[in-house]
Amino acid sequence: MSSTSADVLAVESAQSTTALRQLSMVVFLGFLTMGLPIAVLPRHVSGALGFGATVVGIVMGAQSVVTLLTRQLGGSLADTRGGREIVRRGLLVCAASGLIYWVSLLPLLPHTASLLVLLAGRALLGLGESLLITAATAWGIGAVGSARGGRVIAWSGIAMYAAMAIGAPAGALLNERFGFSGVALASVAAPLLAAVLTMSWRAVPASSQPRLPFLRVLGLV
To answer: Torsion angle of alpha carbons 175, 179, 185, 190, nearest 10°?
Structure first.
């Protein structure tokens, strides 16, 4: 291998590493919106609002249900409009969910209304998760190349689980110090910071490849 080829490979490797670090930080901050309330939300619903275990389960599961229903939408938007734009939209949706958490704490709301507002925030978070992670993966693969697609998935996964692992105890500490309102506001701040960080991402062209229909994908699975 010539020195010129080696230099080109070194530059490409450095660029790929930089892109993966940028991707991981944004995914980490975005998923803090999911990690921060995970330890305190059940106690808030059962304690402060006074609902039972079934309602707690519904509140916690609402996000995952919406994520399941909207994951295909997230992939389609990432392919047609570009990963960077949809990542930003997903982060803004995640921030909006944290704001709705905070609104649910308004003292004028009865407990049932507060629960419904909280459920709306959880549903919105499910949509934000779909937009964020599918678009982040699409951007990462576009930025570093499909040959490094495995690294994109690995780095994204590390960032996701790190956010959950760190977010849970961090949310508990915030809850002890500032109450659930502190957790809600932190859930707004983290994805907004991530959205600012995406300003340094280079644009990656949207995919021009035709997409398989969702039901056909399910059939293949």
So the answer is: -10
Q: Is residue 12 part of a domain?
A: no
Task: Kindly state whether residue 153 falls inside one of the protein's structural domains.
Answer: yes
- The whole-chain average pLDDT of the chain stands at 86
Helix, strand, coil % over all residues of the chain, rounded to 5: 85, 0, 15
Number of CB atoms found within 10 A of residue 200's CB: 9
Which residues are CB-neighbours of 65 under 8 A, at least 6 positions away?
126
**Interval 113-123: pLDDT, tens:** 999 999 999 99
> What is the rounded radius of gyration, in angstroms, for the C-alpha atoms of the chain?
19
- What is d(CA 216, CA 220) in angstroms, rounded to the nearest whole number? 6
Q: Structure pTM?
A: 0.85
Provide the number of structural domains found in the chain. 1
> Is 149 a member of any domain?
yes
CATH code for position 53: 1.20.1250.20
Cα-to-chain-centroid distance, residue 119: 17
With respect to residue 126, please indicate whether it lies within any of the assigned structural domains. yes
